[in-house]
Amino acid sequence: MAVVHRGKQPSLSQLRAFVAVAEYLHFRDAAAAIGTSQPALSGAVSALEETLGVQLVERTTRKVLLSPAGERLAVRARAVLDAVGELLEEAEAVRAPFTGVLRLGVIPTVAPYLLPTVLRLVHERYPELDLQVHEEQTSSLLEGLAAGRLDLLLLAVPLGVPGVTELPLFDEDFVLVTPKGHWLGGRSDIPRSALGELHLLLLDEGHCLRDQALDICREAGRVDGAPVTTTAAGLSTLVQLVAGGLGVTLLPRTAVRVETDRNDQLVTGYFADPAPSRRVALAMRSGAARQGEFEAFAQALRGAMAELPVRVVGDAG
After folding, report:
1. What is the pTM of this model?
2. Which residue from 120, 242, 265, 268 has the highest number of Cβ atoms inside 10 Å of its Cβ?
3. How deeply is 226 buried, as exposed, middle or buried, from its count of CB atoms within 10 A (0-12, 13-18, 19+)?
4. Which H or E run contains 156?
5. Neighbours of 120 (CB within 10 A)
6. Between 3.40.1350.10, 3.20.20.150, 3.90.1150.10, 3.40.190.10, what CATH number should domain 100-169+279-312 receive?
7. pLDDT tens per residue, range 168-186
8. What are the backbone dihedrals phi and psi of residue 24, each rounded to the nearest 5 degrees, phi first?
């Protein structure tokens, strides 16, 4: 059975000195190679021999030779120094902003419309960033953030969740999408009160956009008995139901072009000021280790999203 010595541990400087001697087989040349004096180098090797309890080198008047133990342990010492170098390189990479993996969670009513802008920004400005995207509903994203499965979220706020910090990006208005020929289609001054009695189509339970739409309708005086039909799992299906004459719906401005251009039976109408709106933000764990990086990412996104039909929140410079 091997005996494990739990006394003094060799230092990295001792290992570097020994590896240099093993490579050059000359104290003066080895000392010059690692930038130390010859006496300091010799002392480091002697200290390593004492720590390990074995003779590593044979000193003669003309040259240095490795002992049999020195031949074997030189290989190990090099491996240790290589591993330490890799550790330091990895730590440097982790310290560097916008490198490594960033696991971004996005809600379905944001992902198709904002991801092209996000991905283009990452590709152009942060080429060393390994962005991994997860599309899930808000409750699942928040669970993933709390558990450490996700690093950053892109979603509608406010969340009102303890331990989560929101980094606002922009506000965007909602528009009314109607079938062709609807009396509100194409108008630019729709009063919110018009939502009170419309046959409104909504997303399924669990989508925050459904809850936002219902809140807007309640504020407009909609009564509980007004017709509401919930049959769609996504906005693409929802607008096709509208085109088929089953009702009307609300879309955020960033989704309008993608979702309505494919069907000439859809018409959009705009609300009179102040139009109902939602706020989109990044969300992170409060006190996250990468908080500074995430704040810089939010700032860059504000600038990139200024070209969208939104009102950027804060300085987008």
Report:
1. 0.72
2. 242
3. middle
4. strand 152-157
5. 11
6. 3.40.190.10
7. 999 999 999 999 998 988 8
8. -95, -20
